[in-house]
Specification:
single chain, 18% strand, 10-stranded mixed beta sheet, Peroxisomal Thiolase, Chain A, domain 1, 12 helices, Thiolase_C, alpha/beta
């Protein structure tokens, strides 16, 4: 099988709900990283064969195939097509998979994998219709779903709480993890670890959500999301704005365009998991990716696992036996934010740059996704 190489990766800073990027149209967000990706790699954009962009809430500013509108908004060639992908929070990680699979199959040589989400302009859940009370009324789940799963609540919040109950995590465990995420992210910002991967936008050059001054005492003052639960806003990912883009190339494209491969796509995996628990998928996805790759968890030099909620990562660490020090070494979405459709590409960009910074060889990326799913990607730095 042909190899697929990452030859470029860039992201915007991640903005907060009320921050500097809140009024930047989603097409302009996407256009910004697409233009920067072309500039940084030096590739003639006319040679790109497709643009695959992840986006979750495909309504309003993010409708009508945002991949296509972002590319055209960037002033790039009209003959290059675009398609928008929704695998919930893993949408732009799936974009990377689709781009890599196109290259590995030999059907395409240069494909952009990207992601975008402005959760300030298009709120989470904006694409879900609101209807009268009832287990299926106005919601994506019809009578057939009800026959299989009943009328029980299906939400990421309940899923995170169910994980706390199954794995025995208490509020203090979650808050200690969240504090570490902010501290790691603040340290990375102070040391300039993110500078190479970020393209500034609207006067913003750093991720806005990092709270270097937070503490366990401040977290303890927040109310739980629901009476009897362990979860508070402090242990969940932030509502955010951002975009990301990577260029995936074949060996032939590397030669033809005089590109420098930075990493190769080593292993791809995607799994389904319990849709009620919803967030446990990274555990079996990691198991599948490692089994396919022939590697062990100890061979992985750095992992990016999305911090949708603290129990997602804590359960993953417990079940995989991974080294916490090599897991989200520069903080995760609790500190840095989670602009849904863009996060997969953001994690991949962070992972690539961290491997380059430290000299690590193998990197693993995984994240939980709506409906009970997860992607896992292993890359090898070159």
């Amino acid at each position: 099988m042909a190899e697929a190489y990452i030859v470029g990766a860039v992201r915007t800073p991640v903005g907060t709900k009320k921050g500097a990027l809140k009024d930047v149209h989603s097409a302009d967000l996407g256009a910004h990283v697409l233009k920067e990706l072309m500039n940084r790699t030096g590739v003639d954009p006319a040679a790109v064969e497709d643009v695959i962009m992840g986006c979750v809430s495909q309504v309003g500013a993010q409708t009508l195939d945002i991949a296509r509108t972002a590319w055209l908004t960037a002033g790039l060639p009209e003959h290059v097509p675009g398609v928008t992908v929704d695998r919930q929070c893993g949408s732009s990680q799936q974009s990377i998979h689709f781009a890599a699979q196109a290259v590995m199959s030999g059907t395409q040589d240069l494909v952009v994998a990207a992601g975008v989400e402005n959760m300030a302009m298009v709120p989470m859940g904006a694409s879900v219709p609101v209807g009268p009370e009832g287990p299926t009324a106005g919601l994506p789940w019809g009578p057939g779903w009800g026959e299989r799963y009943g009328a029980q609540e299906v939400s990421q919040f309940r899923g995170a709480q169910l994980m706390c109950e199954k794995w025995g995590f208490k509020r203090g465990d979650l808050e200690a993890f969240a504090l570490e995420s902010h501290q790691r992210a603040a340290r990375a910002q102070e040391n300039g670890y993110f500078d190479r991967e970020i393209t500034p936008l609207a006067g913003l050059a750093k991720d806005e959500g990092v709270r270097a001054d937070t503490s366990l005492e401040k977290m303890a003052g927040l109310n739980v999301l629901r009476e009897g639960w362990e979860l508070t806003p402090a242990v969940a990912s932030q509502i955010s704005v951002g975009a990301s883009a990577l260029l995936i190339a074949s060996e032939e494209a590397v030669k033809q365009h005089d590109l420098t491969p930075r990493a190769r796509i080593h292993t791809l995996a995607v799994v389904g998991s319990d849709p009620i628990y919803m967030l446990t998928g990274p555990i079996p996805a990691t198991e599948r990716a490692l089994a396919k790759s022939g590697l062990s968890i100890d061979d992985i030099d750095a992992t990016e696992i999305n911090e949708a909620f603290a129990p997602v990562v804590l359960a993953w660490l417990k079940d995989t036996g991974a080294d916490p020090a090599k897991t989200n070494p520069n903080g995760g979405a609790i500190a840095l934010g989670h602009p849904l459709g863009a996060t997969g590409g953001i994690l991949a960009t962070k992972l690539l740059h961290e491997l380059e910074r430290t000299g690590g060889r193998y990197g693993l990326q995984t994240m939980c996704e709506g409906g009970g799913q997860a992607n896992a990607t292993i890359i090898e730095r070159l």
